[in-house]
UniProtKB/TrEMBL annotation:
GO MF, one example: ATP binding
Gene it is expressed from: cmk
InterPro entries, sorted: Cytidylate_kin (IPR003136), Cytidylate_kinase_dom (IPR011994), P-loop_NTPase (IPR027417)
Taxonomic lineage of the native organism: Bacteria, Pseudomonadati, Pseudomonadota, Alphaproteobacteria, Acetobacterales
Enzyme Commission number(s): 2.7.4.25
Nucleotide-binding in keyword set: yes
Family: Belongs to the cytidylate kinase family. Type 1 subfamily.
Domain Cytidylate kinase: 6-194
Protein name: Cytidylate kinase
Amino acid sequence: LAGVVIAVDGPAAAGKGTLARRLAAELGLPYLDTGLLYRATGRRLLDAGADPRDTLAAEAAARSLSPADLERPDLRGPEADRAASAVAAIPAVRAALLDWQRGFGRTHGAVLDGRDIGTVVFPDAPVKLFVTASDEERARRRWLELRGRGVTAELPAVLADLRARDAQDAGRAVAPLKPAADALLLDTTALDAEAAFRAARALVAERL
Ligand code: C5P
């Protein structure tokens, strides 16, 4: 399987990350969480007191990301979510991160998760999964995850934040969140992580 690229896209908190990481481990491929690139870019703007919609500052931040930026502990949480989604709507930011993502996957293959992997970053990937779950189930999972990290949040607020971010991600002009025409859809609403992984593995096996 060396050299194969597997694209895993879908809305926030659908379970893509867990699934993509496990698939990568199983198939012996490198794994990249591309959301981290947008999160780290947004975080640098927040740190600098800049507006995450500031096109020039956002492009400069995206171009100068270092590996250490991707390992920061403060890349998750409502503020980081919003900043990531804001910078992700800026075409120059996406262009700056595109070569980086392609370089990561091109040489040895990889499993990448994100929003536009199957549509823009690797449109020729032989396997594309589009992972979804109902809004309520995704909000419940995100709420549990926040609670596990000691963050108190109200479920309705988590649901509203998720919907706002999905609307922004799906509504933007450049590389919007949407399934590639040849993506395999995986609805994980009624599946736990183990069942979702088995279903994904079966879909991957069909295509490889
Ligand atoms: O996947 P995650 O929730 O970490 O992504 C954070 C944000 O980064 C998303 O809401 C989206 O705006 C952006 N993103 C993107 N394209 C990707 C991955 C993430 O636009 N490939």
